[in-house]
Amino acid sequence: MSDEATLRTAADASDFRIGAAIDPDALRSDPSYLRTAKSEFNAITPENALKMGPLRPSRDTYDFGDADAVVDFGVEHDMYVRGHTLVWHNQKPDWFQAWDYTGDQLRTFLRDHVHTVAGRYRSKIDAWDVVNEAVADDGSMRDTVWYDALGEEYLADAFRWANEVTDADLYYNDYGADGINEKSDAVYDMVEGLLDDGVPIDGVGLQMHALGDHPDPGSVAENVRRFRDLGLDVQITEMDVAFHVDDVSENPDEDQAEFYGDVVAACRDAGCDTVVTWGVHDASTWLRSFRDFGERFTGDPLLFDDRYDEKPAYDGVKGALED
Ligand code: XIL
Fold first, then answer.
1. Active site residue 133
2. Are the CB atoms for 195 and 231 separated by under 8 Å?
3. 277 CB near ligand 1 (under 6 Å)
4. What is the pTM of this model?
5. Is 280 helix (H, G, I), strand (E, B) or coil?
6. Residue 81 and residue 75 in contact, taking contact as beta carbons nearer than 8 Å
């Protein structure tokens, strides 16, 4: 392959998808951002625009401006579009806090939300993270507003409601379940239970926020394989690679590159065909602005640096695609 090949052409040539989480403001205001997004990636997901908070200014209204901008950009440039996310306990609207709902009201509200949002993008969005982060770190069901008011049934309901209105593949998505561990065991049991109950679930999304702790790629491959053996697809949905600030390796750029390459290779080997990175370039990473993450982790976790130059991590991914 010639040096002019982009990540996107390398991915296309190996029937693989490399994606990035997208910020609609950057898309509108920064031509380099837009150019990098469309020439280097063949998959995208709105980083925040499809979450309930941004979408629902009030209980009865929707604001689809930002979400449409990102989804339409993906469709226009022939990209695979991941929708993120229909049911999550974080980034709910501010007004939600003060709402004194009954269980029935909440169930109706959530059903309408899923129907409206997933239905709007019926044939434009290729895969939806229907439920995000429903499992706690110790493997128990996470105690969220949804679980609290609706019980475990909300999971099956959400997938069924989504299935009524969209052609997209339907995913369960979570963090910290990338390799074989207590949490991924719990996710495995949960999705196996959903399948046994005939719930329309197509895949599992492994977020792969490798922040400080980097899972063993062999264990990731083994994990991908066991979900594949259940008949599910697996995608890496939110990858970024950082180090604890007080435990940075001697060659962080090279180690980051190696890990990216190893994960893409492990993923391909085990039958996963999509890796989405959580941002286009280092300047847009959530790690620099989210809570105290900026103090805890190195803030350059992506494939392009602040000036949109390709990093060793870029070559690591490309190399794994061309192998
Ligand atoms: C993050 C975004 O990147 C931030 O901009 C936002 O402030 C918080 O959420 N798991 C997920 C993503 O599923 O939606 C989160 O995205 C990162 C962790």
1. yes
2. yes
3. no
4. 0.98
5. coil
6. yes
* Ligand 1 atom having least distance to the Cα of 237: 13
The answer to whether residue 1 is domain-embedded is: no
Tell me if 166 CB under 6 Å of ligand 1: no
| 2 part of a folded domain | no
Single out the catalytic residue among 152, 164, 192, 238: 238
Q: Report the Cα 87 to chain-centroid distance in Å.
A: 13
The verdict on residue 37 lying in a domain is yes
CA dihedral in degrees (113, 74, 277, 67; nearest 10)? Answer: -30
Q: Tens of pLDDT along 5-41?
A: 999 999 999 999 999 999 999 999 999 999 999 999 9
pLDDT tens for each residue of 72-130: 999 999 999 999 999 999 999 999 999 999 999 999 999 999 999 999 999 999 999 99
How many domains does the chain contain in total? 1
Quote the pLDDT of residue 72.
98
> In CATH, what number is assigned to the domain containing residue 228?
3.20.20.80
192 is a catalytic site residue:
no
In a domain, 165, yes or no: yes
Asked whether residue 3 carries a pLDDT value surpassing 60, the answer given is: no
Tell me which residue range forms the domain holding 34. Answer: 7-322
Terminus-to-terminus CA distance in the chain, angstroms?
11
The string of pLDDT tens digits covering residues 147-178 is: 999 999 999 999 999 999 999 999 999 999 99
Tokens of 223: 């994990």
Q: Specify the residue with its C-alpha closest to ligand 1, atom 15.
A: 47
CA of 48 to the centre of ligand 1 (A): 7
